[in-house]
Amino acid sequence: MLSYNLYDLLRNTKFKGISLNLIRKFSKQILKSLSFLASPEVNVIHCDLKPENILLRHPRRSNIKLIDFGSSCYLTKRTYTYIQSRFYRSPEILLGLPYDQKIDIWSLGCVLVEMHTGNYSLTHLLTPLLPYLLTYLLTYLGEPLFGGADEVDQMCRIVHVLGMPSATLLDRVKVDVRNKFFERIELNSGVIPSSDCDTNFIAETIDRTAYYILKKPSNRDLPRPRTLAQILGVYTGGPGIHLLTYYLTHLLTYSLISFIILFRGAKNW
Known about the structure:
Structural class: alpha+beta
Largest sheet: 3 strands, antiparallel
Shape: globular
Oligomer: single chain
Number of helices: 11
Radius of gyration: 22 Å
Number of strands: 7
């Protein structure tokens, strides 16, 4: 009899995330499972890797099982194009490109980041305590890595973290699918990008005759662009409250330095 899933485990931590040590234990087992599925004699794509489909074998042990193969398929018999839960959906699926077992690795990466950072927003706790800038910096902490409200929002969140896909890749995407996420502008055509484009994210074609611009989701604010290292808190002691401690420490240090400078200035005056 299996125990609860990883989302339940995350909820039991009050969405604060789990330790890197436990992340390592989970990832090792999941990678072993995916390696088995990708072996030539099996050759299966899971197609729906997410926290709810990874179960603990015992509530007080770190052994896990990968479940729910209802959307799975053989690599040689890829029946479906609309697969994977949205938060864990790979770019290949979003863009309608051919896919293989690598889409499961994408989902695993998203799951592991979410399990470590949690998925609970700190905004309502910080608003009465911290200045606006600090609240803004922490607004999107703890969400799923790419928690889009729809596919356009999903693609924007991926690009904001990982950057634009290459123009060579986008050239391979069907026009109607590509136009959902990106706008193609021919150089010297006199065409101006539409107002729903984000000009911070551009990919130029190899021959430099055109470029692609990311489309923004309508009527929806996106998190500020961040690197994966920033999301994980690589340079700040970890995600979540560790980042809060980091910024508070720097804020207090800055205030102390300002006080010393002002005090010395007043004394000299």
